[in-house]
Amino acid sequence: MVSPYFGIPVEKWADKTKELIEQHPLDVNEIYEIVISVWEEIFASSITSRGYKIGKDIFPSPQIIGYLLHELIPLELSSRYPQLWRREENAKEKDLVYKYLGKINCTFRKTIEISVSLVCHLSPVTCHLP
């Protein structure tokens, strides 16, 4: 995949980033809402018939929490918008695939911060547009 910044002077990258974000089919506020919702649900959930709770009864490593976010965020988006989004089907795909164009793929990072930088990088989401 060719970078969307290829051939663009560095001083124009911020404008290109804004353009890419505007073109992306997900709203930044919705991404934030989904991530926070999934995060809160992880800690509100019960595990086993005894109802053990993460953060109260068990304390998984950050990697385990990251794995749960990695699985649950694409699941939530594909459940909300099954006509538009699907989870990855093989290792060559990103975590979340936009079905309409088949060209936008998202990788969910193991972090809970929202920031914008190069290549349309939205933590917890990295999206690459063609």
Description:
- The structure is a single chain.
- This protein has one domain (27-128).
- It is built from 3 helices and 8 strands; from the N terminus they run ααββαββββββ.
- The strands form 2 sheets. It has a 6-stranded antiparallel beta sheet, with helices on one face. A two-stranded antiparallel sheet has the order 1-2.
- Helices cover 36% and strands 17% of the residues.
- Strand 6 and strand 7 form a beta hairpin.
- With 130 residues, it is an alpha+beta fold.
- It starts with 12 loop residues before the first helix and ends with a strand.
Distance between the termini: 7 Å
What is the spatial order of strands in the main beta sheet? 3-4-5-8-7-6
What's the shape?
elongated
Radius of gyration from the alpha-carbon trace, in angstroms: 17 Å
Q: Could you name the ranges where pLDDT drops below 50 across 5 or more consecutive residues?
A: 109-130
The secondary structure category is alpha+beta
Number of domains in the coordinates? 1
Strand percentage, roughly? 15-25%
| Biggest beta sheet attributes | 6 strands, antiparallel
Keywords: Endonuclease, Hydrolase, Nuclease
GO molecular function: endonuclease activity; hydrolase activity
InterPro entries: Restrct_endonuc_II_ScaI
Pfam families: RE_ScaI
